[in-house]
């Protein structure tokens, strides 16, 4: 699968001297607004390992933010993308089309939930896909309002900043934002005032009441939700919430959009996270895991909704680039061949088992949640008050990094450690990573 030995190896301080040298050059020329979780410069990556320029090999619990689910150098992705590179790099699908784009749209029609007629349009980034889902929904409904949720994340462009909940770092100082965006509550079980068991029913009732009374259902073009909220803290809306919102959308002629950019493509142990409660979205946005690391995104949905837009109304110079499409076909081939949904479910089993044991010892772990290989722990100062502990999340991440385990943080309160290993990671590396996390708890 990959030439990189699947073994952790720490041979210098992290970051090592060569990374530090590169970091100095970076600081001189790369804009300060572009951050990095860990300034370790990558030489090679594949399977569950990132090898840096100093020869360290880190266990990867990040997958480049849920992108390299098949690994960062998956054989089928490299083979197909390389062959495509040699044939042609670009024509622009809007100038002269090519088969790869069509094949990706066929695969999306097959894999996304629902057996209705579907069509897709391809783009470069997740934010671009979300923007286009809004364009399609507005065009189809003739309405303007867009409803999103607390803790939601949908991107960094002007419209998607408006859709995103969290101010720092995503929105701060970047306004004014796009109008006609309305935010309503989500069923965040762990923090729901009357308890997780009531969150699904109460939050959906509140959200529906706000939409009906404050926006007017007949003004709403789209309701956009992540079936598992990513940047907001790997929040799984409590059971019943998604179906209730989807039903409300259907009753009121509102386009229901599932943003599966982070949760899609086997990440949660199903092709798409909304399948968990049998929700069939009208439109679904995908990106991240779709193409094994190459930049590709899509909007897929009911043919009559997608076709509401006039010819020429959707597109972009690079959207559905042929090399990225070849990468997607290689990535999907790998997901099917290796049954990565089953792998993701196995990762969940291993991780949740180990994390539950850690929670008994370390009550700072207030909540363990997520599905498949999209697992998180929420850290609190005291499990009784649930006061968020962002400092603990930061300190744990730092301790893991020093030992050669790459982990990421997230959450509205910055107190969530999230684990997004490549789905092809070996079980030995997975357990070794969890050993390092456990040691980090002992040290912090
Ligand atoms: C990452 C993400 C986006 C934005 O994708 P980009 O490719 O960074 O523009 C949108 N929605 C969700 C749920 C995401 O996780």
UniProtKB/TrEMBL annotation:
<dbReference type="InterPro" id="IPR049704">
    <property type="entry name" value="Aminotrans_3_PPA_site"/>
</dbReference>
<protein>
    <recommendedName>
        <fullName>(S)-3-amino-2-methylpropionate transaminase</fullName>
        <ecNumber>2.6.1.19</ecNumber>
        <ecNumber>2.6.1.22</ecNumber>
    </recommendedName>
</protein>
<dbReference type="InterPro" id="IPR015424">
    <property type="entry name" value="PyrdxlP-dep_Trfase"/>
</dbReference>
<dbReference type="InterPro" id="IPR050103">
    <property type="entry name" value="Class-III_PLP-dep_AT"/>
</dbReference>
<dbReference type="GO" id="GO:0034386">
    <property type="term" value="F:4-aminobutyrate:2-oxoglutarate transaminase activity"/>
</dbReference>
<comment type="pathway">
    <text>Amino-acid degradation; 4-aminobutanoate degradation.</text>
</comment>
<dbReference type="InterPro" id="IPR004632">
    <property type="entry name" value="4NH2But_aminotransferase_bac"/>
</dbReference>
<keyword id="KW-0663">Pyridoxal phosphate</keyword>
<dbReference type="Pfam" id="PF00202">
    <property type="entry name" value="Aminotran_3"/>
</dbReference>
<dbReference type="InterPro" id="IPR015422">
    <property type="entry name" value="PyrdxlP-dep_Trfase_small"/>
</dbReference>
<keyword id="KW-0808">Transferase</keyword>
<dbReference type="InterPro" id="IPR015421">
    <property type="entry name" value="PyrdxlP-dep_Trfase_major"/>
</dbReference>
<comment type="similarity">
    <text>Belongs to the class-III pyridoxal-phosphate-dependent aminotransferase family.</text>
</comment>
<keyword id="KW-0032">Aminotransferase</keyword>
<dbReference type="InterPro" id="IPR005814">
    <property type="entry name" value="Aminotrans_3"/>
</dbReference>
């Amino acid at each position: 699968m990959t030439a990189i030995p699947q073994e952790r190896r720490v041979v210098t301080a992290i970051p090592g001297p060569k990374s530090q040298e590169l970091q100095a050059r970076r600081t001189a020329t790369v804009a300060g607004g572009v951050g990095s979780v860990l300034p370790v410069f990558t030489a090679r990556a594949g399977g569950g390992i990132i090898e840096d320029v100093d020869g360290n090999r880190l266990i990867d619990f990040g997958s480049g933010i849920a992108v390299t689910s098949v690994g960062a150098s998956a054989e089928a992705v490299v083979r197909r993308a390389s062959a495509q590179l040699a044939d042609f790099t670009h024509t622009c699908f809007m100038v002269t089309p090519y088969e790869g784009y069509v094949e990706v749209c066929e695969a999306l029609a097959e894999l996304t939930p629902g057996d209705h007629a579907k069509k897709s349009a391809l783009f470069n980034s997740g934010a671009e896909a979300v923007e286009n889902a809004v364009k399609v929904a507005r065009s189809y409904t003739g309405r303007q309002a867009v409803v999103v949720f607390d803790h939601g994340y949908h991107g960094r462009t002007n419209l998607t900043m408006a859709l995103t909940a969290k101010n720092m770092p995503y929105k701060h100082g970047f306004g004014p934002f796009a109008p006609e965006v309305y935010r309503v509550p989500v069923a965040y079980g762990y923090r729901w005032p009357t308890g997780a068991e009531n969150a699904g029913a109460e939050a959906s009732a509140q959200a529906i009441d706000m939409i009906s009374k404050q926006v007017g259902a007949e003004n709403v073009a789209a309701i956009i939700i992540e079936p598992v909220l990513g940047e907001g803290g790997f929040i799984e809306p409590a059971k019943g919430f998604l179906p209730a919102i989807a039903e409300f959308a259907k009753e009121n002629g509102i386009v229901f959009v599932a943003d599966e950019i982070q949760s899609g493509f086997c990440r949660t142990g199903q092709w798409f996270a909304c399948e968990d409660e049998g929700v069939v979205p009208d439109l679904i946005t995908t990106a991240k895991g779709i193409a094994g690391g190459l930049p590709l995104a899509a909007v897929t949905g009911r043919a009559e909704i997608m076709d509401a837009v006039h010819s020429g109304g959707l597109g972009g110079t690079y959207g559905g680039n042929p090399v990225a499409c070849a990468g997607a076909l290689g990535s999907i081939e790998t997901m099917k061949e290796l049954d990565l949904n089953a792998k993701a479910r196995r990762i969940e089993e291993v991780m949740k088992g180990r994390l539950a044991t850690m929670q008994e010892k370390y009550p700072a772990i207030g909540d363990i949640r997520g599905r498949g290989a999209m697992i998180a722990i929420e850290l609190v100062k005291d499990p009784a008050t649930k006061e968020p502990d962002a400092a603990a999340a930061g300190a744990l991440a730092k301790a893991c990094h020093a030992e050669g385990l790459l982990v990421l943080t997230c959450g509205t309160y910055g107190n969530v450690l999230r684990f997004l290993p490549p789905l092809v990671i070996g079980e030995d590396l997975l357990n070794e990573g969890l050993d390092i996390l456990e040691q980090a708890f002992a040290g912090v």
